[in-house]
Design brief:
The chain has 186 residues and is an alpha+beta fold. It contains five helices and eight strands. The chain is globular, with a radius of gyration of 22 Å. The termini are far apart.
Length: 186
């Protein structure tokens, strides 16, 4: 009887140790990637822009020439607009895009949100593009690049007075997003 009880106790302990040893880390722990609930690229910018205080907002436009929206973010479908305005490399595979830009000077504030196959790789590419860009008509102070899980990326750059309030609201609205870069543009 004692042998059977000892055997059962040992079996239960081994199963419990095996269960503990095989547990997967929770999303976001130990370098795991947190999936962020995002409905679309447009939704990301809309939610953040809606939270920016009125006295911190500026004359802005969204979308592209085919989808222009006054004072709010808009959908982007035009590849030429993505490359010329949002600085996206021509060979990038964009599944979905949205934008919000300063209505007078793109270097004061430009923001694009993108759905891509690999958010981490696209974030790195955009960091390199922005850091090496030859600026005209003003010089942006800062860039902010954030990833939302494995598919969505927000890329923004501009002057501190415009980009800092936007970044503050970005982290408040999407606390689970990963701010990959928040740095001065040299």
């Amino acid at each position: 009887m004692k042998k059977i009880l000892a055997f059962l106790l040992a079996a239960v302990m081994m199963l419990s140790f095996a269960a503990c040893g095989n547990s997967e880390p929770a999303e976001g722990e130990n370098g795991g990637e947190t999936e962020v609930s995002v409905g679309s690229a447009l939704e990301i910018i809309e939610k953040v822009w809606a939270e920016v205080e009125e006295d911190k907002k500026f004359f802005a436009m969204g979308g592209d020439m085919e989808n222009m929206v006054d004072g709010a973010p808009g959908t982007v479908t035009n590849v030429d607009f993505m490359t010329s305005t949002l600085l996206v490399p021509a060979d990038a595979e964009i599944l979905e895009a949205a934008s919000l830009v300063h209505g007078m000077n793109l270097n004061s504030f430009t923001c694009g949100a993108f759905k891509v196959a690999d958010a981490a790789a696209f974030a790195e590419t955009m960091h390199e593009v922005i850091a090496s860009n030859q600026w005209m008509c003003g010089f942006p102070d800062k860039m902010v690049i954030a990833t939302f899980g494995s598919e969505y990326v927000l890329v923004s750059f501009g002057i501190n007075d415009a980009i800092n309030p936007f970044e503050e609201k970005l982290t408040a609205v999407y606390p689970e997003a990963t701010i990959v870069y928040s740095e001065a543009i040299a």
